[in-house]
Amino acid sequence: MMNLENKMFSRQLGQIIVTFAFLYSTIVCHFKAIELFKNDEKLFAFFLWVCAATSFLGAFRFLIAKIVYKIRGKKYHD
Questions:
Q1: Where residue 74 falls among pLDDT bands split at 50, 70, 90?
Q2: Per-residue confidence at 51, pLDDT binned at 50, 70, 90?
Q3: Cα–chain center distance at 24
C-alpha cells in the first residue's frame, strides 16, 4: 500500500500532466482554427475556438475552483 507522500506526489504529477495536455489541446485547436478560418470554413473554425477556450479553462480548473469557493465563502480543499 502506498504511503500518503507517494499518493500526494502521484496525484500532483497526474494533475500537472493533465494540465499540460489541456494547454497542448488549446494550442492545437487554436492553430487549426486559424487555418480553417483562412480557408473560409468559419463555422468549424469558430467551433474549434470554443473548444480551445474550454480547454484553456480546463487547464486552470483548480484556480477557477478556488475563486468560486472564495466567492461562495466556503473553504477550498486541495
A1: confident
A2: very high
A3: 9
